[in-house]
Amino acid sequence: VPTVTIGGQNVEMTSKGLAQTNDGQDIYVYEGAFTIAEDESLMEEGKLAVVLSNVVDKAGNVSKDEIVLNQTPTSNNRVMIYDRTIPEITSITQEYESKEDRRIKVTIVTSEEVSGSEFHDYAWRKVSENTYINYFYSTQDVKVAFADKAGNPGSYSFTVDKTAPIVTASVSNNGEPTNKAVVVTLTSNEALQEIEGWTKVSDTVFTKEYTENNTFSVDVKDIVGNPTTVEFEVKGYDAIAPKYETLRLLRIYPEYGTN
Q1: What is the pLDDT of residues 37-46, one digit of tens each?
Q2: Which residues partner with 153 through β-bridges?
Q3: Under a CB-based contact definition with an 8 Å cutoff, are residues 184 and 214 in contact?
Q4: pLDDT tens, 41-89?
Q5: CA neighbor of 89 nearest in space, from 59, 55, 118, 53
Q6: Most buried residue among 65, 158, 161, 211 by CB atoms closer than 10 A?
Q7: CA gap 40, 26 in Å, rounded
Q8: Between the CA atoms of 12, 16, 17 and 18, what dihedral angle is there, to the nearest 10 degrees?
Q9: Structure-model confidence comparison of residues 257 and 165, the more confident one
Q10: Rounded to 5 degrees, what are φ and ψ at 38?
Q11: In whole angstroms, what is the distance from residue 15 CA to residue 219 CA?
Q12: Are the beta carbons of 180 and 154 closer than 8 angstroms?
């Protein structure tokens, strides 16, 4: 039985007898199990050197040199890699889509290729290297579990946001007469996307000046893209100076009064 070491650790081998390759060549088959003990968990990650020694041929000749198996993957050879790194989600985005009953498209990017029951049944669909998408139709808490090729497990929890923002509008003059531009302030319960024509005060507050009395509406979206429409009324604005349309001159006579 040949001596085998993997990553410097001895592997107990068992002879499985003689077999033939697809092209008819006789080969001896040996089988062994390799388990990394907990106290060896500090072993450096990466490719593990597989070294054979004490190899004996049919005639009984014993190899004098150690044989290091090829560490480059080929069609007939797989590289052994030690991996104890837990896979992670490095990026997650949510995007509102108006089609299919206004769904939320969630995109996750993982630190390495992963798999799992939720991936096998296509709940999460791979669209590019380490990038997966899924669709949700309501606000909900989600936990996704996965594992890398080495079997290291990972998980990630997040909340799908399909709730429209709550936005209120207030006017600077409270509807009272004014000759200055009326400032309308939008205040949201969550961060909003940029609103064209409005000044961003903070993630949740936007302002705009109006110099016209009327009823207005503005469409706004939260960061995910959930939309809502805000309506408000501007009134009391008056920047027109008064004019005299008629002028009557009065003369006063002390003795007789006004004429």
Answers
A1: 555 555 666 7
A2: 147
A3: no
A4: 556 667 666 777 777 776 777 776 666 665 555 545 556 677 788 999 9
A5: 118
A6: 161
A7: 37
A8: -110
A9: 165
A10: -60, -35
A11: 74
A12: no
Distance of CA 226 to the CA centre of its chain: 17
Q: What is the pLDDT of residue 54?
A: 73
Q: What backbone phi and psi angles, to 5 degrees, belong to 52?
A: -110, 140
Q: Among all chains, which residue has been given the structure tokens 């705009």?
A: 208
Q: Which of 87, 83, 92 is nearest to 154 (CA)?
A: 87
